[in-house]
Amino acid sequence: MATIKNISAEQVAQLCQGHYAGVDEVGRGPLIGNVVTAAVVLDVNNPILGLNDSKKLTEKKREALFTEINEKALSVSIGSATPAEIDELNILQATMLAMQRAVKGLTLIPDLVLVDGNRSPDFGIESHAIIKGDGLIDAISAASIIAKVVRDRQMAELALEHPQYGFDKHKGYPTKAHFEALSRWGVLEQHRKSFRPVQAALK
User: Fold this and answer.
1) Contacts of 45 (CB under 8 A, 6+ apart)
2) Which of 109, 116, 112, 106 lies closest to 137 in space, CA to CA?
3) In sequence order, what DSSP letters do the residues of 130-196 get, joined into one string?
4) pLDDT tens digit sequence for 164-189
5) 19, 41 in Cβ contact below 8 A?
6) Which of the four, 1, 13, 137, 178, has the lowest number of CB atoms within 10 Å?
7) Which run of H or of E encompasses 69?
8) Residue whose C-alpha is closest to residue 58's, from 137, 149, 188, 120
9) Which residues are 26's β-sheet partners?
10) C-beta atoms surrounding 36 within 10 Å
């Protein structure tokens, strides 16, 4: 596994040949819920316009692209790690596990896996970590969109069960509103008990 920083357009073109998967994660920072990953193998003969880092897109645009990616991609797979796994392994190792699960779930085995960030787990397939890859490699952008929409929907469902926490707004991230809800309403089963603000609320 190599980590590539400041990747050039030429390097992108060299890497993005054949069937390759883009992988990204969403949800390392929140205090609650799964860390969600996605692996996507795009069809070069059926391009998708407007792909970008999911954080740079509006919710409406992400939802539209989510549908288009699922319709046009050769394979899309979701992986996740639960709060219990995050507490047991730590957030980094749980994220690596979720990435492995996403790639393992692909119906088309890629020749290469490109991961957003500075490290990649062992997939049993050649892989590279690409710094800021979610804004540079279309398949990674697609994976970031899939993972973001899936996790946001999970938070929206949790918000229906526990509306007083405001998960539909802050998505479980450590915001002032989330801290106040923790202080007032306490820790839920889905909270990550190994994260310091949750530990503080438990005390």
Assistant:
1) none
2) 116
3) ETTGGGT-HHHHHHHHHHHHHHHHHHHHHHHH-GGG-HHHHTT---HHHHHHHHHH---TTB-TTSH
4) 999 999 999 999 999 999 999 999 99
5) yes
6) 13
7) helix 59-72
8) 149
9) 36
10) 26
pLDDT at 38 (0 to 100): 98
Confidence of residue 2 (pLDDT cuts 50, 70, 90): low
Strand pairing of 20-26 and 112-116? parallel
Q: What is the pLDDT of residues 71-116, one digit of tens each?
A: 999 999 999 999 999 999 999 999 999 999 999 999 999 999 999 9
Determine which helix (DSSP H) or strand (DSSP E) holds 63, and give its type and residue range.
Answer: helix 59-72
Q: Is the pLDDT of residue 1 over 70?
A: no
Phi, psi of 36 (to 5 degrees): -115, 135
What is the rounded distance in angstroms from the CA atom of residue 165 to the CA atom of residue 151? 16
DSSP 62: H
pLDDT at 20 > cutoff 80? yes
